[in-house]
Amino acid sequence: MLERDGYPAGVPCWVDLIQADLDKTMAFYGGLFDWTFEIRTSNGAPVRYAYAVLEGLVVGGVGGPPAGDAEPSGWTTYVCVDSADDTIKAVTAAGGHVLMPATDIPRSGRVALCADPSGAVFGLWQPAENRGAQLVNAPGSWNFSELRTTDQSAAAKFYGEVFGWVSEPLEMGDGSQTSMWRLPGYGEFLAERDPEIHERQDADQAPGGFADAVALMIPPAIGASATSRAEWTITFAVADADVAMARAIELGATVVVPLFDTEYTRMGTVRDPQGAAFTLSQYRPPEPAL
Is the pLDDT of residue 159 over 80? Predict the structure, then answer.
C-alpha cells in the first residue's frame, strides 16, 4: 500500500461526513470498511470529529452533529489549495458562492465551504498538519469524487478557472456522458512517488492521460429531475462489489442504484442509515489484448 504524504494544489485531498449521530456513523462505516476512529475533539465539545483509519492510515473524517444549516448532509470533497482565502476570491469571481468562510481548524488546516454556480457543494483545504488522506484507491478507502450536473460546459468553465482543471470525454462502456477532469502535471507528481504508475495504467488499458485525473463529471442520478441541483458525490473502492453491497444492506443501507458493470468497474450506489449516498466500486480492468 502506497502512503500519501500530500497533494499538489488543485487536487482533491480530503473527504468527510457530518451527521446527526456520530456513533451510528462510526458503527456503519466501521462495519462496512473495517475503519477504526481517532477522536480529534475534546471531551464535551458540541461537535465531535474523528479521523477514519484503515490499516494505520487516515482515510477521511466523520463528525457530528451538524453545526448549522450550511453544513452539508452528505459526503464532502475538499480540494487542496495553497491559500483558502485566495481561492475563495477565485470562486466568487467565477460565479460561485461561499457557504462557510475560511476557518482555521486546530491541528488540521484552514478550510472553507463553497458552492459552484449550479449549487454543488465542495470544500477548500489549505493543509497544515493534516496533509490529506493518507490512503486512497485501496479497498475500503476513497476512490474518486464525481460532479453530477446537467450543465457540463458551465461546470468545465468554472472548475477550469478556479482550479485549472481540464475536462475531457471519458468512455466508460455504459453509454453515459462522462468526462474526466485532469490537472496537467499531476501524473508526474504521482510518478515521483510511484515510479510504476504509468506502466500499471498502460497494462490496465487506462484512458490516455488518466494519471492526471482528479475527478469525474457525470450526468445526474437516475430519476433526478432536469432542475435538480448539481452535486458532488463520492465513490469508495472495494475488493468485491457484491460482498460490499450485501454488507452495506445488512448494516442498514438502502440501494439507490443496483450493481452494474462498466468497462473498468462493477459498481452500485447506496444510502447509509442517516441518508448519505455513496458508491461502491470494484476495479475490474479489461483483459490485456493478446
Answer: yes
